[in-house]
Design goal:
CATH topology of the largest domain: Tachylectin-2, Chain A
Shape: globular
Order of helices and strands: EEEEEEEEEEEEEEEEEEEEEEEEEEEEEE
Strand order of the largest sheet: 1-20-23-30-25-26-27-28
Structural class: mainly beta
Radius of gyration: 23 Å
CATH class of the largest domain: Mainly Beta
Number of helices: 0
Largest sheet: 8 strands, antiparallel
CATH superfamily of the largest domain: Glycosyl hydrolase domain, family 43
Helix content: under 10%
Number of domains: 2
Length: 422
Amino acid sequence: MHYSPGAPILRSGDLINWELIGHSVPSLDFGEKYNLTNGHAYRGGTWASTMRFRESTGLWYWIGCVDFWYTYIYTAKDATGPWTRAAVLPGGTCYYDCGLLIDDDDTMYVVYGATDVSIAQLSKDGLSQVETKHIFSASDVGKDGIEGNRMYKKDGLYYILDDHPGDITYIWKSESPWGPYESKILVNGVKSPVSNGGAPHQGSLIQASTGDWYYMSFTWAYPNGRIPVLAPVKWGDDGFPFFVADESGGWGSSYPAPLPVEAVQKWTRTDTFDDSTLGPDWEWNHNPDETKYKIGNGGVTLSTATVTDDLYAARNTLTHRIHGEFPVGTLQVDFTNMADGDRFGLAAFRDRTAYIGIHRDGSKYTLSVVHNITQEESAWNTTGLGNIVATITDIPKDKTIWFRRHWTLERAVVTRPISHTV
């Protein structure tokens, strides 16, 4: 959520195969900490947001709350961009875990909130708030919290989908966007289709072009983190959807494909950086110093952007999301122009980080393996700068080297991106 550009967009023609096509938030221009120049934004940035297309304006709208204080609205004529910041709602207006509905009469509503859930009606241009109203609370279903709100309309009725974190997904129904709402459980502690995965929860309902409905959720599974899962839903005579479980009552390990399978760009591939801009599958850790890198002519050239011994404080750390259960990242590096004191490496990068890289000290170059670079989980401050666990000084004389990071279940330390940094 602190990677820049922010709010990545994926596209699919079959609900199974997905490809990254862009970002809704071109830059995290939310203050100095997003540049790593005055603090940091770890666990900040773009939280659960919403994106919808509006026929009347021909625009995509992205809405999300940042830092629990401001709600930002970005728009674009095409989902691939370019995206433009169109509005910032007054301070204190946070559409937390929000879902946008564009009604049949073109009115825009946003459902949002944690524990206490509200509905906001937006102005005709969708860029300001007309009114907001509390509609229900977690206590209405005897729970201590609710989050992950999404809003729909079907057959003249309004629906809200949200979750008690970790186990139960609720669906709420009303004849008016303002309520009153009655609720029903969609899934409760349903068994995951992924081995050793947690109960799927917190997702979205989707109507395919066939008219059939599906529930896309996620399951927590080590070492990847949140893994999307998809299952069909049907609609009952009571006007509520119900989950299509397997014979054991769990989330099926397989279901019939919703739509004919469409080919997408392969996630596993070689990037030679021939274009002048990075592809949508690359992001920076916080906003980069744009004067300290160049892209094109077959590579990315990084110059020293930060003098620090803390990897988490180093600007211009370039990241790439892992993919698959046992992902592999391979990188060719020309370190001819490293300066005295520079560090460069390929890392499994998250709140526990390890890397392999080149250290230059004077005229000495050392290939080093560093483990146990750590952050704590409250303010996400650095708690460990890492330990060198292996070194070698016999390195290629042409200053060109290949790095590879191969995750295995026994040794994986990452559920986020691989990254490299100077």
